Each structure stands twice: as C-alpha cells, then as structure tokens.
Amino acid sequence: MNQKIFVSAKEVADRAGVSRSAVSRTFTPGASVSEETRRRVMEAAEALGYHVNHLARGLMRNESGLVCLIVSEMDTPYRASLIRAISRQLQNVSKIAMLINTDRSDKSVDDALRLAISYRADASIILSGMPDKSISDLCVKSGQRLVLINRDEEREGALMINLHDREAARRAFIAFQRAGCRRLAFANSDVGTPSLMAREEGFVSAAQAAGFEVAVERFGSTRYQSGVVLAQRLLTREVRPDAIFCANDLLACGVMDTARHQFRLEIPNDLCVVGFDDIEQASWSSYELTTFAQPVDRIAEEAVSWLAKPLYDAGLSCKLSAELNWRGSVRGG
Known about the structure:
Layout: H1 9-16, H2 20-26, H3 35-48, H4 54-60, E1 66-71, H5 77-92, E2 96-101, H6 106-118, E3 123-126, H7 133-141, E4 145-149, E5 159-163, H8 165-178, E6 184-188, H9 194-209, E7 214-218, H10 224-235, E8 243-246, H11 249-261, E9 272-277, E10 290-293, H12 296-307, E11 316-320, E12 323-325
Helix pairs in contact: 1-2, 1-3, 5-12, 8-9, 10-11
Organism: Rhizobium wenxiniae
GO molecular function, one term: DNA-binding transcription factor activity
Keywords: DNA-binding, Repressor, Transcription, Transcription regulation
C-alpha cells in the first residue's frame, strides 16, 4: 500500500522558481508578495496538490488551533444545537473543534482534559461534568484555556457561562398563576446538574413565597422516557397537578404525551405544561410547548470571543437570560 506523501513548501518553491519564504508569504493573509510571484506559486501549488499545514504553522507559534468540546449526551436536541453553534463560531475564527464524548462523571471530564492537553489544544469548552481543581490548574499551567457552560463552581482563569435559571423558574410560576393553576408540580431528572437544580429550586421558592406548595418528582436522565415516568408518578397522586414545569423540553414532551394518551387529559384545559430549552420539537403542532429558549448562539459567541482575547485576560462569569416562548401548552399563552 502506497503511503501518502504530503507536498512540502520547498517543493512548491522549487517548481515555481521562487524562495521558500515567498511561498510562505503567498499563503499568509496580508503579507507582501508581487502578483507575478503569487501567480507562479499558486500554479505550482495547484499542480503539486499542495495545502498549507496550518497545524505545523500554529505549533511554531505555540498554538495548535484546536479547541476541545467535552460533551455528554451529544445526541439530545439542545446539546446538538449548542455543538453546532460553537463549532460554527470556532470555524469563523479559524479554529478547529475536536469533539470528545464523555459520560456525566467528573472523572471522564478529567480524562478528556488530559487528552486535550496531550494534543496541545489551545482551549477546552466543557459542557458536561466538572473537572478536578488540580486538572484545571494543570490546564492553565499548560497554557490551555477553559470555558465552563452551566457549571456552578468557579475556576481561576476560566470563563463561566450560566443562565438566569432561577429567574426563568419564577416567570414559569407567574405564567401558571395567571392561567389560574393552583396545583403545581416540577418534573426533574436525577442528573442534578446546577442548571436543572436551579430551575427546580427557583420554581419551588417562588411558589412557596406566594403560598403554594409544589409536588416535586425526579427520575432518570433528561430524556423523553423519563418524562413518561414522571407524568405517571405525578398524575396518579391523590391531588393531581394542573400545572407542571419540566426541567427541559424532552421531559415535557414525555409528560404531555403521557397526560394526553394515558390519562386522557386535555392540554392546556386540564393541564398546563412549561418546558426549557426550546428544542425544535417544542414548536411542532403535536406539542406547541411553551418553553424557555436557550440562547445557544449567544453562548457560542461569548465562549469563542473570550477565547480570542489575550491570555492575560482574567477569567470571568457571564450570565445570560432565557426568553419565554409562548405557545399553546399554557392557558392564556
């Protein structure tokens, strides 16, 4: 089997009859090179099949151009949309996303970060789990930058991007209250991430401050089937809720289908439902789900713009708002 041999810049220079530095300047944006030299170099590169080795160029400047995305549950709609937005933003600034699939455990994130360091990644964006502080310190010492999305513990030198989850939860309570709902419930997973728990705690706190009790159920992962189980638990209680705030849209879809098909309830007449994320399915006519939209494009912009700043720029915390999209799953919406 023939081994692929990459064409070198020197070979292009020899064929074009120019210096090696002229080839480098030709492929460097903004560099000074005559039109005749550029023409000869480009013709030679085309004939030989030459492509610039951006990785080698970057390593000469102590940059690889690689940014690791450390992700779990990448097949879920919200996570997929966030990966798409971040990778697009990275490409816009000539960075390459390297995807590392993890579970939700902190150890898997630590292992992923060590892998990122070994590949000399410029940065890692963590969407799952929380790295050990010693691993975070190792990243900083190795010149790698960290972006932590929806994590609750600060890391020195890292950018923390979170949502105003508690404020969104308070708005969900107000929506139910104005719709005339009195028997409230919160459907959550067992995952226990900071963002999910902030939504639960914010909703319960807002309701209790107004004199309402909230039935809370937690089960499984943040997926559709967990929503089915949560609906079965909540809707077979002695006091059946007339409003359920779900920690995310996949849970809400499972709750709504179970309420309608197993319990013959009408939404929103018998049961009002609010979700979180605003995944594509939320707008489908089968659901018409009232939900909070994750600002995925803004999250991606904040992460990538911070990575483009000088290394001495200190870490910071960024809080974003999730806008409520009214649809047909809440009366009066």
